[in-house]
Amino acid sequence: MEIKDSGSVVLTAYHSYAPSRLPRVEQSFVPELAAASPPSGHAVSSRKSIPRCRRINRMLSNESLHPPTFSRSNSQASVDSTSMEDFWCEVESIKENSEGGQEEQTVTEVKPADEGELEAEWLQDVGLSTLISGAEEEDGQALLSTLTRTQAAAVQKRYNTYTQTMRKKNKHSVRDVRDIFGVAESPTPFEPVPVSLVPANGVQVPGKKPVWKAVNSNSCLDCGLDKDTPSVAEELSFEVSFSESITEIPKEKEGLKSQRFKKEDSSLTKFIVRKSRFGLTEVGDLSVEDMKKIRYLSLIELTAFYDALGIELKRNRTDKVKGRENGLFGVPLTVLLENDQKKLPGIKVPLIFQKLLQKLEETGLETEGILRVPGSASRVKNLRQELESKFYDDTFDWDQVRNNDAAGLLKMFIRDLPSPLFTVEYLPAFIALVERISKIKLQLQALHLLIMLLPDANRDTAKAFLIFLKKVVANEGKNKMSLWNVSMIVAPNLFIYKGKRSNQEEMQAAATTAHIVRLLIRYQDILWTVPSFLITQVRKMNEAAINNTKKQPIFDKSMRKLLRRKTLERERPEKIEVATSPRTSKTLPTSPSSRRKSDIPEGVIRVHAPLHSKVSMAIQLNGQTKAKDILARFHCENSHDSPGSLKIQNQSLYEIGGNIGQHCLDPDAYMLDLYHANPHAEWVIKPKTS
């Protein structure tokens, strides 16, 4: 498969950025702006008579003639051979819209953290709150047992800081770190036992090599544009922990050197991800419970990753902001989805957001300057009010909405969210991945882990938004919106903080945030893929939980009765079809004993398909059997049922139970390898939830 490419918070209210309040920008930052400014002799007396972007250009070029009021950090990003004109024009447009009264003036403020509180919150967010409470819970023990060397060191570092702080405060007795990690009293520093590398989506068998194997070159995830991209692509691996793969710590001067970006698309590396024998797994392919564990592990891994690079992972602490409980704009994503799911169960992206994207995709992708050219502020205000009253009644006339006005509504929806799309807590981590990390590959790995940390509603909405932006860039020939242009416009809508300490610090990061958006758009196909090493750790956690459960006797009479009935049902004789390939099969009589799971021949799985006329089939696996072969076999058996053939064709094969909750399989996944990784799983064919 080849896929072509194609703190301090965010966005809850806006300052009125007067020209005198805008940060002074160095001349090298905007080399084209001074030349773009009109001569003083042609100045117009009325400020409003000057086009908005020209006013910004003049202001920036004039400001740059004077010494800056602040010293730029050595890590501050800058841009080669390009101006930030689009960024500042968008800031001015946002300011004017907020002055017009359309946007909710809700401000999310960052709270100062007491000593030790950040570490306590971190331990809680990674699922290790039991280390603080002192309780001996199995979930925490299972999580600790899966950690790599660098991950364990990251946990121990935070726990050490927490315990030392608590002892100073004399709040209560805390567990010694040696009780948790089993460290003997010794003057030597803690060195966890290195963990053997494990196969993706599988479990390492002692004494055996990982089951991962290379696949054909066309079976990969390819992220890069067709034109102006490097001829040599760099390969990414999801098999090994990112933090474990860091072999060299960047020098301090190198980590703090000035980042200089180029707006050309060719400056971005082209990456490919080879599919392992287990295929690739997207974020929507796992169960809710397993994704919760992925978040725990992602935060631990991100912390270990930053530790390995010598970067402090900073997080913001904020008061929870209560948004509106009804309506469309200024309503939390979770509330919007709860309201929309009453109308359309299972929906993952708010209906209003979907409708705005649909409107723009149908009529606006080829509009020149889409997203950049602002719509009428008065029309956008009136459209917003009309949407609030008519949208859910299906009486709103979408034909009256001009493309630029629809783009303005889309950006306004994002800005008005009570909590930002990419969360309050990790804005410093987003900024640090660009300003403190020089290599694109390491930036992408950090960004990948941050995407894994997003709540479901935020991630699904961000995914829909980035897919749309990718389509805008794909139509650059007609709409004149390059990847850099789109990034410039979107960045202030996502990453400008609206708290008390905004203005200079956040505005300095203009090029930084634009580069983040550029990475998000370009490499989004990679970012929605769950790293295989995290899935491996989830499997180990689930296995540990299963082992702990087996140690507990079942005393419930009703449960014993249910198990007895299920055993009798399983022992009824029947005939099963053993298929060795999609084209050949044979029917074999089976005795009750042969149908017991423990007596099933090696390499044979039973696949259930509730929506097919043939609801169950035993499949003999070999080294070349893929998930798509099993789907093809069931489709062939049901091909005579023409009315439902299309519905059956759109189904997927799922791995359920054993050491995974639920896992929608990649069609190219090799089934025998998955069978060995999870021999106790059930295999079910059903529609994939979108």
From TrEMBL:
Residues 331-528 form the Rho-GAP domain. The keyword Lyase does not apply. Residues 566-577 have a biased composition (Basic and acidic residues). It comes from the Eukaryota. Residues 99-108, 581-593 have a biased composition (Polar residues). GO terms for cellular component: cytoplasm. GO terms for biological process: negative regulation of stress fiber assembly; regulation of actin filament polymerization; regulation of small GTPase mediated signal transduction; signal transduction. InterPro entries: RHG40/28/18_ubiquitin (IPR057323), Rho_GTPase_activation_prot (IPR008936), RhoGAP_dom (IPR000198). The keyword Manganese does not apply. Keywords: GTPase activation. Residues 95-114, 566-600 are annotated as: Disordered. GTPase activator for the Rho-type GTPases by converting them to an inactive GDP-bound state. PANTHER family: RHO GTPASE ACTIVATING PROTEIN 18,19-RELATED (PTHR14963), RHO GTPASE-ACTIVATING PROTEIN 28 (PTHR14963:SF5). This is Rho GTPase-activating protein 28 isoform X1. It comes from Phascolarctos cinereus.
